[in-house]
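Lab meeting, item 3. Inverse folding demo.
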């Protein structure tokens, strides 16, 4: 396991920018490769199953994403906030991990049981043909909950390759292989079959991450009530922030799918998928910066260096968005046309999404600082009181 980043192991004047640049470059590289694979998988689904099935597929994925906000409940961000200071103390680390699993998995399985009951009622009482879609889709909730938990733990240990490689590379690769096998066999997959294939690929990625994130030591370590209260309070703030951001990061496809038809939903989903590449610079920088901030702020010169680190990160993310977004805007018809005929109609939506990523590049580092310091309540007030309404109105 690589050494953790602690206040004593950081050369405050020397290697902060190098650490961020190397970590962000690795993260962006993996995410770009993953986006290419995910893009290929999306194109295969659209080509093999048709635009309407692709739109239904993306619409179905919106609901597990919304439920995932509830089951995660800010716990993964709390892990990134507290775990770097506990690395090396196995009992403390194990207590925090046990708390995170108890907080997330129990609600996840309760939701699964509830949705499986609803699916059974749809099938046996109302004879609905989409009952199997609901039964399959709900299984994503505990699997993706574990994925985010393991990823947060690996990020806190600065094991960025292990944190991103299974989900970003292995998962779409497996889905592509399964789709190619179906295409060779001449089988046109149904919506339920597509969800099952995606679930299998996701489960394989989670199992690999679980192996990397395993912790040796005592199996059961009791948690102190004061620690649990502090962790829960911080995670609750992160949870409320996630709910405020959900309107601009999660439910957009659901809104489009509820108002418009499946074809229009497919056009929007394609534009969103391509525009996501421009936001990878922002995501990569914030994912690397977040676990570095808690121990850094405890150092003697930590505040000044944290400000320097965040400023460098914001500039790096903004430059990436400008370059990547500009290239994609010039090639917009070509990129959208890969999904099939008529997808060029989403060009205007594509441009709006690119502008949204540019705004996030400028402001994202400030949100990260507030969430990883003791100002998560202030971040909640800012995001919930002004950011969510303004960004929602701008988005729609």
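The presenter then showed the designed sequence:
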């Amino acid at each position: 396991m690589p050494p953790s980043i602690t206040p004593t192991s950081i050369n405050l004047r020397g290697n902060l920018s190098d650490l961020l640049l190397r970590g962000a470059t690795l993260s962006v590289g993996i995410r770009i490769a993953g986006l290419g694979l995910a893009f290929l998988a999306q194109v295969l689904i659209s080509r093999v199953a048709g635009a309407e099935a692709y739109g239904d597929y993306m619409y179905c994925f919106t609901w597990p994403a919304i439920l995932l906000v509830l089951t995660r409940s800010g716990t993964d961000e709390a892990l990134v906030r507290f775990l770097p200071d506990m690395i090396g103390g196995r009992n403390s680390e194990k207590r925090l991990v046990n708390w995170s699993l108890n907080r997330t998995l129990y609600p996840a399985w309760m939701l699964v049981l509830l949705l499986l009951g609803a699916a059974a009622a749809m099938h046996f009482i109302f004879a609905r043909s989409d009952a199997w879609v609901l039964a399959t889709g709900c299984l994503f909730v505990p699997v993706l909950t574990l994925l985010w938990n393991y990823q947060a733990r690996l990020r806190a240990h600065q094991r960025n390759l292990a944190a991103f490689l299974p989900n970003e590379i292995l998962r779409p690769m497996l889905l592509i292989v399964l789709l190619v096998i179906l295409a060779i066999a001449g089988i046109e997959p149904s919506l339920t079959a597509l969800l099952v294939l995606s679930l299998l690929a996701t489960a394989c990625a989670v199992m690999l991450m679980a192996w990397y994130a395993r912790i040796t030591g005592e199996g059961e370590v009791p948690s102190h009530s004061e620690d649990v209260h502090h962790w829960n309070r911080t995670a609750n703030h992160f949870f409320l922030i996630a709910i405020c951001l959900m309107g601009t990061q999660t439910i957009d496809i659901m809104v489009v799918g509820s108002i418009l038809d499946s074809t229009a939903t497919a056009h929007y989903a394609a534009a969103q998928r391509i525009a996501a590449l421009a936001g990878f610079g922002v995501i990569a920088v914030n994912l690397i910066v977040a676990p570095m901030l808690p121990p850094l702020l405890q150092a003697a010169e930590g505040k000044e260096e944290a400000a320097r680190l965040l400023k460098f990160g914001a500039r790096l993310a903004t430059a990436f968005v400008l370059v990547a977004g500009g290239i994609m805007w010039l090639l917009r018809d070509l990129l959208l046309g890969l999904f099939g005929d008529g997808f060029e109609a989403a060009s205007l939506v594509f441009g709006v999404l690119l502008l949204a990523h540019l705004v996030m590049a400028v402001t994202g580092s400030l949100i990260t600082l507030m969430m990883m310091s003791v100002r998560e309540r202030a971040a909640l007030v800012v995001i919930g009181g002004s950011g969510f309404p303004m960004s929602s109105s701008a988005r729609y």
